[in-house]
Amino acid sequence: MALASSLQKGQVPVGCEICQGKNKIEFKCLDCNLLMCSGCKDRVHLPCLRIAKDHQITDIKDIGKHGKHVTFSEIKCETHKGQACCLFFQTCKTFICLKCVAKVHNGHELVEEEDYNEGKVETKPKLQSKIKFQISNKYTTDLTHIHHTAVCFDGSVWVGDGTRSKLQHVKLTENKTEVITNFNTEIYGMAKTHLNNILVATGGSQLKLINTMTGQMTDSRYAVKSLTPTGIHVTRDHRVVIAAWTGGKTLPVTGRRVVVVMDQEGKQLKEYEHDNHNKRLFTFPEHITSTGNGNVCVVDLLDNDYRGRVVVLSSGGDILGTYTGHPDVNTWRKPFKPKEIVTTPLDNIVVTDMSNQFLHILTEQGQSITNYNLNDMGILYPYSLALSASGTIFIGCVNLQGSKDSAKAKLYKFEYSGL
Q: Which residues form the B box-type domain (predicted)?
């Protein structure tokens, strides 16, 4: 009965109380009790109300931490337009509406309004102490750097060196790799398709396709006109996601910085470029992955020192979370410099932090779960990541800039559980 009551309350859509519902509620003033959107918070509430300069404003998702009562029906659903929220989704740490319950969050841990306001909710992700991560093999390759990695169904691996423009299909032996096929080509992104072939971004607007059986490279059906791909990902439902830009100087930001989603035939389905306030979502999108429920996770380069962040978007394009590193690892002296990113079968996000030689494990919305000091395991300069069908994860490493061609990059195979 309590659940039914919560669902009924969720049928009444309520928007920003300042602009009269034109935008979704994102903040609440705890002093004057106003629910407002981001624009009204910055342009109306504080500038126009003199008495409001000392008011406490909080994100609606953090209200429970301040001991204030939250009325779920006053919060607009971020995914379904015109729907008010009726439950709190414990697993994703977000408020959801009736449509979310039916489609996305069915069977997950849900919290009702009364329990939420009584503090019966954890606003931080649980520490997954059951996560285990262990090296099972180390391989020496013929490459100087391993910027890109993809694992085939038969256990063979594709590795790419973007600096030396070398791409290899290799067989793994006891402690080294044996080359099956070798290409001399520029590589800006690489991903394995559901047919076990390899998509490669080589600098043009059209992706190349390598047939793993024949070793032949041809033009693919995937192209982003007037743009240059910087990263590729193939989703679990076989869609192709491409990060791209208009070219020129990486920074300062000019032109387009976009993530494009295509179907198997190469038809564009959607693109992510701006948020609801027409602000850029990305500075320079480099690497991409996705979760089973459609979240798109992007490694976004922020400056010329390779400082970056992870941006997690819903399938509708709303920002679910951003991750800029962990305070125990990343400081102003050791900023977060993310490289490759993958998602596990349980939808946790794994990202390499090359300069600090850490591996960060995040929730599907970009919240920190834990991290691993790979340097303590003897692994230096981790860069690329790839998951195998057998449930292992590969980490490809690079050598320091300016290393001789004789320097051989290492490829590590990990067994993991709890991810």
A: 11-60, 72-113
Q: Is 146 exposed, middle or buried (0-12, 13-18, 19+ CB in 10 A)?
A: buried
DSSP per residue, 121-156: S-SSPPP-TT-EEEEEEEEE-S-S---EEEE-TTS-
Which residues span the domain enclosing 85?
2-117
The answer to whether position 141 is within a domain reads yes
Using CA atoms, how far residue 350 sits from 263, 314, 340, in Å, is 25, 18, 8
Q: Show which of 94, 117, 140 is a domain's final residue.
A: 117
CATH number at residue 209: 2.120.10.30
Q: What is the pTM of this model?
A: 0.71
Going by the DSSP 8-state scheme, the letter that residue 312 receives in this structure is E
Strand order in the sheet with 257-262: 228-234, 240-245, 257-262, 268-272
Element (H, E) at 304: none
Number of domains in the chain: 2
- Residues 354, 292, single domain; the answer is yes
Rounded CA gap, 301 and 308, in Å?
A: 4
Consecutive 10-residue averages of pLDDT for the chain (419 residues): 41 57 70 73 59 66 55 71 70 66 51 58 54 91 96 95 96 95 96 96 96 94 96 96 93 93 96 94 96 95 93 94 93 94 94 95 92 93 94 94 79 90
